[in-house]
Amino acid sequence: METVSPTTWTRESAHAEKRDLWSAMKRGFRCRCPRCGEGKMFRAFLKTANNCSKCGLDFTPHRADDLPAYLVIVIVGHIVVPAALWIETNYSPAVWLQLAIYLPITFISSLLLLQPVKGAVVGLQWALRMHGFDEDAPSDIPPV
Q1: Residue 120's closest CA among 53, 40, 34?
Q2: pLDDT score at 18
Q3: Which residue has the higher pLDDT, 40 or 134?
Q4: How far apart are the C-alpha atoms of 47 and 43, rounded to whole Å?
Q5: What is the C-alpha separation between 23 and 9, in angstroms, rounded?
Q6: What highest taxon heads this organism's lineage (predicted)?
Q7: Average pLDDT score over residue span 36-63
Q8: Burial classification of residue 51, based on how many CB atoms lie within 10 Å of its CB (0-12 exposed, 13-18 middle, 19 or more buried)
Q9: Nearest to 121 by CA among 78, 77, 75, 82
Q10: pLDDT of 87-112, one tens digit each?
């Protein structure tokens, strides 16, 4: 049986690139590279580019999966539902009018938020060195 030695933290191992969480998420929200803030993160609506055109950061290890969609549902739901309840309580418009207003607002705001939220999630993963964004990851960890 093979014994695994514990990781020893040294002064040299602590000199990794500093990654500010909020800056990375803001840059990602603007659909820019979380490292340099200049290169585009997306090559299509929700398809990330393979790497940053300015600094060369590899975007392929990101694992955003369904988190951006869940976050958009929560954000839009917390805006549209209270507004709909307030309007219904105070003005009682016809159901057809409510559907004609709330459905397009929900649809359009969801589409507008989806790409920036996915960019922020990728920025969060890069800043926290999640998945393949950690260049000093131990070699015994299998790829995702």
Answers
A1: 34
A2: 84
A3: 40
A4: 6
A5: 26
A6: Bacteria
A7: 94
A8: middle
A9: 75
A10: 999 999 999 999 999 999 999 999 99
pTM of the model: 0.83
Q: What's the residue count for the chain?
A: 144
- Cβ distance 129 to 19 under 8 Å? yes
Nearest by Cα to 68 from 25, 21, 8: 25
The tens digit of pLDDT for each residue in 65-91 reads: 999 999 999 999 999 999 999 999 999
The token pair at 135 is 């260049």
Instruction: Please report the sign of the dihedral spanned by the C-alpha atoms of residue 44, residue 47, residue 51, residue 57.
Output: positive
What the block records as the tokens of 49 is: 């580019």
Closest C-alpha among 18, 16, 17, 42 to residue 120: 42
Long-range contacts of 38-41 (CB under 8 A, 24+ apart): 41/119, 41/122
The amino acid sitting at 30 is R
| CA angle 122–128–131, rounded 5-degree value | 65
